[in-house]
């Protein structure tokens, strides 16, 4: 993994930036969530800007002035973290996670059990498995691992 030197982490600029974030989401999900049906992908994508983004505080990562990743936090829970698929493995997700842990006090995240690379990412960053659900937050048949991180 090599760190991106011209990486900037900042607050989301608002709804005018949502289309770029949805695009990042789709890129990442298409690359890592092959267990999701196309119908579920499309349904989730349709809800991102109007239903999901307003429920979280969005933080954006930029590389050379272009949004390439984002995180959404509610309370101490990381609700979403996605990086453009073409930039995976460059330290962008790690930098973004470290930022929201430090600035927002993130202590919990749910991750799809069928996405072992994401689970491994969070485990490498100090999270541990605290529980499991058979279905996702919308009741779809995608098991979730509930991860927590101590205050240390």
What does it look like?
- There is one protein chain.
- The chain is α+β, with helices and mostly antiparallel strands and 152 residues long.
- It has a domain at 7-107: Gcn5-related N-acetyltransferase (GNAT) (Aminopeptidase).
- It is 34% helix and 30% strand.
- The protein is built from four helices and seven strands; from the N terminus they run βααβββαβαββ.
- The protein has helices at residues 18-32, 38-52, 92-104, 116-124; strands at residues 7-11, 57-63, 66-74, 77-83, 108-112, 127-133, 144-149.
- The longest helix has 15 residues, at 18-32.
- It is globular and about 40 Å long.
- The two termini are 25 Å apart.
Please, what is the CATH homologous superfamily of the domain at 7-107? Gcn5-related N-acetyltransferase (GNAT)
Helix-strand sequence:
EHHEEEHEHEE
3D shape: globular
Which bin fits the share of residues in helices? Answer: 25-40%
Instruction: Kindly state the number of beta strands.
Output: 7
The top-level CATH class of the domain at 7-107 is: Alpha Beta
Round the mean pLDDT to the nearest integer and report it.
88
Structural class: alpha+beta
Instruction: Write out the strand line-up for the largest beta sheet, numbering strands in chain order.
Output: 1-2-3-4-5-7-6
CATH architecture of the domain at 7-107: 3-Layer(aba) Sandwich
């Amino acid at each position: 993994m090599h760190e991106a030197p011209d990486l900037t982490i900042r607050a989301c600029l608002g709804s005018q930036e949502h289309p770029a974030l949805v695009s990042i989401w789709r890129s990442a999900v298409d690359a890592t969530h092959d267990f999701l049906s196309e119908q579920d992908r499309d349904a989730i994508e349709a809800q991102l800007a109007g239903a999901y983004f307003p429920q979280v505080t969005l933080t954006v990562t930029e590389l050379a002035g272009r949004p390439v990743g984002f995180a959404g936090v509610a309370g101490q829970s990381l609700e979403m973290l996605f990086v453009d698929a073409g930039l995976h493995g460059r330290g962008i997700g790690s930098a973004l996670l470290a930022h929201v842990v430090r600035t927002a006090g993130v202590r919990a995240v749910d991750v799809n059990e069928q996405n072992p690379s994401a689970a491994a990412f969070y485990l490498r960053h100090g999270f541990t498995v605290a529980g499991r659900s058979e279905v996702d937050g919308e009741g779809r048949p995608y098991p979730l691992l509930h991860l927590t991180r101590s205050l240390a």
